[in-house]
Amino acid sequence: MAPTQELVTAALSTVIDPEIRRPITDLDMVKSIEIAPDGAVRVGVYLTVAGCPMKDTITRDVTTAVGKVEGVTGVQIELDVMSTEQRKVLQTKLRGDRGPEKEIPFNQPGSLTRVFAVASGKGGVGKSSVTVNLAAAMAASGLKVGIVDADIYGHSVPRMLGAAERPTKVEDMIMPPVAHDIKVISVGMFKPPGNSAVVWRGPMLDRALHQFLADVYWGDLDVLLLDLPPGTGDIAISVAQRLPSAEILVVTTPQQAAAEVAERAGSIAAQTHQQIAGVIENMAWLPCPHCDERIAVFGEGGGQTVADALTRTLGSRVPLLGQVPIDLRLREGGDEGKPLVLTDPDTPAAAELRKIAAGLSKRSSSLKGLQLGLSPNR
């Protein structure tokens, strides 16, 4: 007995587009369904663009889903490409009819996405490693997570996540690659092959940040993390202007020299009226491989020093969220695109990062910083 159109359509509704993360039936990507008397099924599928990098994944997933339907004896997939008009309809379906002015969705009243800007006073403190592993831990707990690699000059997030795909452009909307269930965007994805430098000045940096926030289709995120460049330069100022409700996470290492510059990076919140979520001390100690004694390679107390100093500066408590020990596997995982919290979740460093991520994932009952969309009644 040959399968029915209804059964095949139901199977196709379980196929999730790997970039948009919605069923292909909801996205009008199913072009046709033909069922032969002998049970052979031919499915026509629209790709969003020619040369879609996810076409093999979509073909595999459709074949698997339809092949499980009772009575199906074979599956053939025919790929086509959406017309310009179809892509415009898709864009409107995903983002609504916003008109020519692109808005940042995380600034809209009612947005429930919690935004964290991960900052440091200087480079080399492991800020990007912390960002990637926090994101991976949150995604593994079931949250919908995105990362903006806002460190334009020193972008490294794609490598650390193993995100090798390039973004797909649908009209003027950008579909971010997904790695470890994390949506990610970085200027490194738009550069020509090779390790060329990005030579941009302030206005171009601000424009790039706005495009990453407004042009990228992020969907309904629970958490967005921005990996900021070190210091208090143009990007830090742009984030304060573009995302005024973003909370700052300050990453430092224990030594006092690093703590002093980290304090300066965090103190920008006093001028931009942003909230500091807390301080993370990275490379806090090295567990001795022979006796498990903690070796203070970079000194001690820097994280608490920064937290106490920012508490005095801002007049509100800034907590030390955690102290992450040195672990060679954390660095190795970054080089291989495999976050430590996923590959070795029970190691001391991964456990501490997962604890920090769990704490940050808990939404405060306070209304501070939440846009309620209220207008004064005259």
What structural class results from the helix and strand content? alpha/beta
Assembly type of the shown chains? single chain
CATH class of the largest domain: Alpha Beta
User: Termini separation (Å)?
Assistant: 69 Å
> Which strand order spans the largest sheet, edge to edge or round the barrel?
8-9-5-10-4-11-12-15
| Name of the CATH homologous superfamily of the largest domain | P-loop containing nucleotide triphosphate hydrolases
Low-confidence region ranges:
365-376
Main β-sheet description:
8 strands, mixed
The outline comes out as elongated
Helical residue percent band: 25-40%
Number of β-strand runs:
15
**Rg (CA only):** 23 Å
Name given to the CATH architecture of the largest domain: 3-Layer(aba) Sandwich
Order of helices and strands: HEEHEHEHEHEEEEHEHEHHEEEHEHHH
Helix count equals 13
Q: Strand percentage, roughly?
A: 15-25%
Query: How many domains, in number, for the residues?
Result: 2
Subunit structure: Homodimer.
Family: In the N-terminal section; belongs to the MIP18 family. Belongs to the Mrp/NBP35 ATP-binding proteins family.
InterPro entries: FSCA_dom_sf, MIP18-like, Mrp-like_CS, Mrp/NBP35_ATP-bd, NUBPL-like, P-loop_NTPase, YlxH/NBP35
GO molecular function: 4 iron, 4 sulfur cluster binding; ATP binding; ATP hydrolysis activity; ATP-dependent FeS chaperone activity; metal ion binding
